[in-house]
Amino acid sequence: QVQLVESGGGLVQAGGSLRLSCASSGRAFGRFRMGWFRQAPGKEREFVAAISRIGGTTDYADSVKGRFAISRDNDENTLYLQMNSLKPEDTAVYYCAADSNLDPSLATSPTRYDYWGQGTQVTVSS
């Protein structure tokens, strides 16, 4: 079993930056591909970014490419999302998730992920 706890959300002005963290319990963190998703009020949960087990491969939604960066520290069992040049449309609850499936590809569908954190609110004011 894996427990994920996000932190680092908050209120920021457009153009600002935030760094989200996702701390994982247990010693299996390095076995999971990891992802970040977000959900705005009234909208479906959407893919933001994903990273391979050792961090060598990443994938991003088109809406965040060039602005967001996903990374991980397997020694610290922590996933990160550096968010720069934030826009009001980035406002959402951000979730980290872990994928333990045998398929080695990075998944963009939330149905592929087995474990989820409780989410952290990011609000970008205009």
Description:
The structure is a single chain. The protein is mostly beta strands and 126 residues long. Helix content is 0%, strand content 47%. It is built from no helices and eleven strands. Strands 2, 4, 5, 6, 9, 10 and 11 form a seven-stranded mixed β-sheet that branches. β4 and β5 form a beta hairpin. It is globular, with a radius of gyration of 13 Å. The mean pLDDT is 96.
Summed over residues and divided by their number, the pLDDT gives a mean of 96
Sheet with the most strands?
A: 7 strands, mixed
End-to-end Cα distance, whole Å, is 40 Å
Give the strand tally. Answer: 11
Q: Could you tell me the strand content as a percent range?
A: over 45%
- Can you give the helix content as a percent range? under 10%
Derived structural class: mainly beta
Provide the succession of SSEs: EEEEEEEEEEE
Stretches where pLDDT falls below 50 for ≥5 residues?
Answer: none
Total number of helical segments? 0
Radius of gyration: 13 Å
Tell the overall outline.
Answer: globular
Descriptors for this entry?
126 residues; 47% strand; single chain; mainly beta
What's the layout of helices and strands?
Blueprint: E1 4-7, E2 10-13, E3 18-24, E4 33-39, E5 46-51, E6 58-60, E7 68-73, E8 78-83, E9 92-99, E10 115-116, E11 120-125
Parallel strand pairs: 2-11
Antiparallel strand pairs: 1-3, 3-8, 4-5, 4-9, 5-6, 7-8, 9-10, 9-11
In short:
This protein is mainly beta. Helix content is 0%, strand content 47%.
